[in-house]
Amino acid sequence: MSYKPDKEFLSYCESCERETSHLLILESFQDGSDQNENVTWQNRIDLVQCQGCRDKVFRTVFYFSENFDENGKYIPEIRYYPTISVDKLNALASKNITADISKSISRMFAEVYVAYNGNCLALAATGIRAIIEYTLSEIVASNSKNKPIEEACNLGFISVPTKELLLAIHVQGSASIHREYFPEKALVKLALEEVEDMVRKFCTQEKITEQIKSKTPPRE
Question: What is the SS3 assignment for 41?
Fold first, then answer.
């Protein structure tokens, strides 16, 4: 069994405070196997370099022959050293929304960013689902018998297309919990960006409205 990591890949850079292209420049690995169970694995220690700021960091990678996606591509467990702080990971949301939202939702986003950056994509998708439920539950009537997404649409807080989008993101998280689904990183990123926009709208809309009104001269 051969494990071949990408020589160039996207990852979060703490200095650049965003995802950047990284290059694998040094690598050391050890293969292992269990002939009785017919499984193989590989432990790697790599030195990788950001192609933006040129900073270098270490990462450990663990491949296991039984851990792969529906396309047969191995899903590695990846850790970076030094570890990236939660505060820095908040910058992964390019819009930096955490300053304007509640501590509970901010903490949820921070944990989702940690999972996303560590390639724990099922965990990240589950967290995104939780953010949708928590945010919309704060907006719709607390005694509603319907699910928050449908009720938010019924009350006019979101449009029908937005409802369908959020339901799709919600189902992605549900499948990660209940159906052993491991979504692609690109799909999780799309979901995260859409939910960031949703939270920003609901948590900052009133503040932005007042700012615009206060600066706009009245009719004469």
Answer: strand
Per the rule left: phi > 0, alpha: psi between -120 and 50, beta: everything else, 31 is beta
Q: Which two tokens stand for residue 70?
A: 């529906």
Supply the mean pLDDT for the chain: 80
Cα–Cα distance for residue pair 40/36, rounded to 1 Å: 11
Does this model's pTM top 0.70? My answer is: no
Peptide bond into 82 cis (omega under 30): yes
What type of residue is 41? Answer: W
Structure letter (DSSP) for residue 182: -
Q: Quick count: other Cβ atoms within 10 Å of Cβ 178?
A: 8
106-117 pLDDT tens trace = 778 878 887 887
DSSP state of 65: T
The pLDDT of residue 173: 92
Concatenating the DSSP letter of every residue in 101-170 gives S-HHHHHHHHHHHHHHHTT-HHHHHHHHHHHHHHHHHHHS-TT-SS-HHHHHHHTTSS-HHHHHHHHHHH
